[in-house]
Design brief:
This protein folds into two domains: 117 residues, Beta-Lactamase (2-Layer Sandwich), CATH 3.30.450.20; 154 residues, Reverse transcriptase/Diguanylate cyclase domain (Alpha-Beta Plaits, 2-Layer Sandwich). 47% of the residues lie in helices and 23% in strands. Strand 1 and strand 2 form a beta hairpin. It has 306 residues and is α+β, with helices and mostly antiparallel strands.
Length: 306
């Protein structure tokens, strides 16, 4: 029969071949064995650990986790897999370790420790990559839904959101106003002062509409010099007041020291209107405002202008 000493020597030799820490503690959490990994990779000498409580190598937070969760898990389930602990190496540097453990009938715990520094680094890199991808996705979503020049909603996004808003207003039985805003003599501005000046006017008008509108309003550059505003929970009186103030604000935008003017076509929803219905009505109203002299608001179905 082989001697116990020979068996222990063989066991020690086998454990020293693994590129991971092997550690045994007794029922009092005293370290009774460590393999050579601790000296070669964690800079602990065997005699610095054997006979010491395992708390010697654990950080404060890991000690709490060790006592409150890891040990109770071992006592109840006999094994514990892929737990995360932070330990100190022999130089006092914190090292994240993945722990697997198993307890026998004598209360001895056999620990396998794997350095997870690279795993944590990879995890951090994956998190950062995911966050970057999410940011890029948000940017792409924004680019797909906004007008590049004015940063207002583009035509497609306006169509989509307006439909949702109308469905909501139908359920809540609230009226909605739709405004079509068209810059007067915009072609003349481009032809006389150039497209850069025209772009400036579009940008300033977009900023003015966004600053003046409520957070719940839908505001878009619908195409060329045409802008749309959808005003939820707004009746005829409120919409006309909005348009009056809008004309005054837009007049602050100057070209050749002269105020920019707009023609506004306005319509109010009822329970059967779709977005296409409202747009057609407001678009017809803006053409009527143009034909009546521009720089005014025309309510669809009303012969009077403002």
């Amino acid at each position: 029969m082989k001697s116990i000493k020979t068996e222990n020597k063989r066991a020690s030799y086998s454990a020293d071949c693994f590129l991971s820490g092997a550690l045994i503690t007794d029922s009092k959490n005293t370290i009774i064995y460590v393999n050579s990994y601790f000296e070669e990779h964690l800079y602990w000498k065997s005699d610095e650990l054997v006979g010491q409580n395992i708390n010697k190598i654990l950080t404060k937070s890991s000690r709490i986790f060790f006592q409150s969760y890891l040990i109770p898990t071992l006592l109840h389930e006999k094994t514990s897999e892929e737990m995360q602990l932070i330990i100190f190496n022999g130089q006092g540097i914190k090292i994240p370790m993945t722990i697997n453990a198993q307890i026998n009938e004598e209360g001895k715990v056999f620990w396998s420790l794997y350095n997870s520094s690279k795993q944590d680094q990879l995890y951090d890199e994956l998190i950062k990559t995911r966050e970057k991808l999410e940011e890029q996705a948000e940017e792409l979503k924004s680019l797909a839904s906004t007008d590049e020049l004015t940063n207002l909603l583009n035509r497609r996004e306006m169509n989509y959101r307006s439909t949702l808003l109308l469905e909501q207003s139908l359920r809540s039985k609230q009226s909605v106003a739709l405004l079509v805003i068209d810059i007067d003599n915009f072609k003349l501005i481009n032809d006389t002062f150039g497209h850069l000046e025209g772009d400036r006017v579009l940008k300033e008008l977009g900023q003015a509409l966004k600053s003046f509108g409520r957070q719940t309003d839908l505001i878009s550059r619908y195409g060329g010099e045409e802008f749309l505003i959808m005003l939820p929970d707004t009746d005829k009186k409120g919409a006309l007041l909005f348009c009056n103030r809008l004309h005054a604000i837009i007049a602050d935008i100057l070209v050749d020291n002269k105020p920019v003017t707009v023609s506004i076509g306005m319509t109010i929803s009822n329970t059967i209107n779709t977005f296409i219905d409202l747009f057609t009505q407001a678009d017809n109203a803006v053409y009527q405002a143009k034909s009546l002299g521009k720089n005014r608001t025309q309510l669809f179905g009303d012969d009077n202008t403002i």
